[in-house]
What we know:
This protein is of the alpha+beta class. The protein has 16 helices and 26 strands. A seven-stranded mixed β-sheet has the order 3-2-1-4-9-6-10. The protein starts with a strand and ends with a helix. The model has no long low-confidence stretch (mean pLDDT 84).
Amino acid sequence: MMKNLIIAASWESSRLRPYTNYIPKIMLNLGKKPAILYIVDYWLRQWVEEILIIIHSKYIQLLNDYLHLFYKDDIISHIKFSAKDECNWSADAVLWAVGNNENFQKNVMISWCDIFPKADLKVDNRNQSICFLTNEWKCRYWYDYKLNEIVKNSDNNWDVIGLYYVNDLSQYLDKYELWQDLVDVIKNYDQWIKLDFIDYWDLEKLEKTKVIFNDFARDFNSLEILDKKYVHKEALNEKGKTVIKQEINAYKEYYKYENIRAIFPKIYPSFEETGFFMNYINWKEIRKVFDELDAEWQRKLIDAFDDTLNELHKNKVDVDRQRRYDMCYEEYVWKIEKRINSIKKCIIWFDKISKVNWVDVMKFDEIMSKLKEWLNSYVDNAEFTIVHWDCTFSNSMLDENWRVILIDPRGKFWEFWVVWDKNYDIAKFIYSTLTCYDKFNLGNFSIDSITDDEIIYKKESYDNKIITYIEEKYLNKDTQIILWIIWLWLAEYIKNDFLKMNWSYWEWMKQLSLAFRLY
């Protein structure tokens, strides 16, 4: 019975550049999480007990540290690495690694780092050697059913044929030549099974795979429109139940203030207490509307959003200085230290980089020291009001009268419901407009180069028609610093995308460094 899995991972991953300039393709994001997690989770659902990943030695520590962000030690202990720095084709990679790992010579599945089956394997007899054939036509080899053997299809450097389950690999250890495919060496199988595979072999396939996984739906709640009268929001798991409960309580708090009832939808709790209904209005999601507008109408939308926030923030709440300081310290300092320290092993060149895209950047400890200095003076005048907490374009709707309606409030912080620093709301709004968080969510990023002390990355450029208008209206010293803090938090929150995690960290370390020098 199969219990071991070998994953032949990438060496230089040239077909997926620029995304694989400094990471192996097995760490690329496929939508909601990195490929390595989909692959490990898939095979642990099968019969696999031990996993051996063959990979270039320069990636082993990075990949091992990255796996520790997602798995506990009881899973990590079953994942091993074999360093293979010279790429002499798949037969040499696999059989060389097997020769150095006797536990992976019997009853072993051999896979590649850029494919895994779409459905769970259903194999009646796992005492046989089995070749799992891909249905992909673009392949170096294909199975000839008449000859009952694998035939070379093309000299082109296309995909391999699929997966191999082999009872005994030891018989092949000294029977291969360099620059042979594994399929050229192991040709005898008891069974041939065709499968559909998730395949991100090159840039074209990577984009198609992302579409499969990235449906942008949350995994903890669902939305259903009922006769264009109501929207039903339902929890899908325990996390969803917690979020639903917080939202219901937040809406109840908002309804206590007559002047802001109109900027939130009317909700009706359901009997099950795992969801709620809210009035359906002829809404447009602002993140889908904003970029389609010309500059004049974008300004009008910004002003409409501003009206909503001003109405919300009219409701001031008296909070003593010590409590303001403690709350701000937790959110603006402690939260960053906690989050960044949890991922710093996976931030490329964390302790070495002193320049980011030609700009001198401070060290992380220096940034934290500057933040503490700023906070000591900031809290003296920090104004606490009723807030939304997460007023991005994704959490706001535009009704037929061009009134901005806020949805998905965060809820409670400390003992306070819907009470917080109003500048945080403003910074979160700028987060969507000026720094284009919603586009960042959909964009692709890559590292262009890394030298001894400098990292240069590429990012998508955005045609923001009203940058000056937003900057003049909102961007003072305090909102700017809070804005960069929010982006710095994001690095840990989006750890499931290695490249975006690193971009979020280095870009906003750069921006905080500039801000502290400016002020």
